Amino acid sequence: MTQPSPYPIPAGLTPIPEEQLDLRPDSEVDHDLLHPRPVSGEKNIWLFWDTGFAQMHGYAQRNVRTWHRRFSRQGWVVRVLDRLPGSPLNVANFLDVTDPAVFPRAFRDGTLAGRYGAQHTSDLVRWPLLLRYGGVYADVGLMPIGDLDRLWRETVGDESSPLEVVTFTMNGRDLTNYFLASDRDNPLFLRCHQLLLALWAADGGKTTTDGMCNSPLLRGVPKMARTLSFEEDGRVYGPDEVADLLSDYIIQGQAAALVMGLVDDEGGWDGPRYVREHVWASDYMEASQLVNALTAWDGPKAFALMSLPLPREGEGEGEGEGEGEAESDEQRQARGIVEGCLRRSFAFKLAHGLILRVLGPTLGLLWRANEGSDDVPGTYAHWLRYGMVHWRQESLPKRWEFEVVEPFKRGPLLRGGIDVLGS
To answer: Which terminal residue of the chain, N or C, has fewer Cβ atoms less than 10 Å from its own Cβ?
Structure first.
């Protein structure tokens, strides 16, 4: 049985029967999140927060609960791993953190540093988790919208399907690292992680990603965002410097792009062909960044729109009553954002990290700074959150049509690189 919705249901969505959802109070859901059952299959949703779920920002906790509420009764187990001593969800209880074939020296000895050390620590756990256990890795800032269980059943979870990886792509020659799904021992992710380890092992072992994008191992891979610039503390960062900063920040994406564009006859790997035949990806802007697309990456504008209340419905029976409030232009735009996301997107990625320096405050940063503002009943933000839990899209996003393209590199993956196992 499904209770009446407090919000209008956009076309293309259907209510999810309540017996398929976990609608218990937050405290009971949180108990399950902090005490997940042992890994027994591949329907795992992996997330990471170095200080643990209890220390996460409220809006991120709500994201994690949504994964659980939506999919736990379809057999998915949500685990938020951490690095807290004594925690049952410590990464060390799931992966060998002393193994140089799994983690670089900086991770193993606790010297991983830099302005974005926490983000890069998170980067380093996602491929090893998928390689060992399979399932999904998602950033805690990713708001789930689409039907993960159906997508999994029709791709990776279908033994007759050739599709082995699920993710998003920006241009068909890369993938986003904030949502990744695969079976165990995936050959694409195996090579991606081998390359990432080699980049970290350079110069006797790096402690930050600074300069990694200029490694000879990545020669031929285009750098990111060559048109952006910004000013900070009186200093202007030009397009070339910003491209290096962003490419170092998302070095995991650079490594994946190289492997996707690698043809290694000796190693039996044809990346462009593998991607065309075995990767399901959707356009990242439509599938996971639609709020930003509809607000031109204007975080304060997005925050203001999502904080608006919906027009009040009419009340009473007197003359002039009962018609309700007229929808303002801003409310109409906010409605377009909510309806667009719920109909067309698979998720929404709340942007943080380096992008704040380049583009200024984002919706995620403003939700973080204004605790609870994403969860106020009657607002467009709450409408979006309600729909994420209670409604299901009638169709899956469109798959990107990959082409077999000219490779970035021909030859062994680590030619001229470093013996990672010996580092």
So the answer is: N
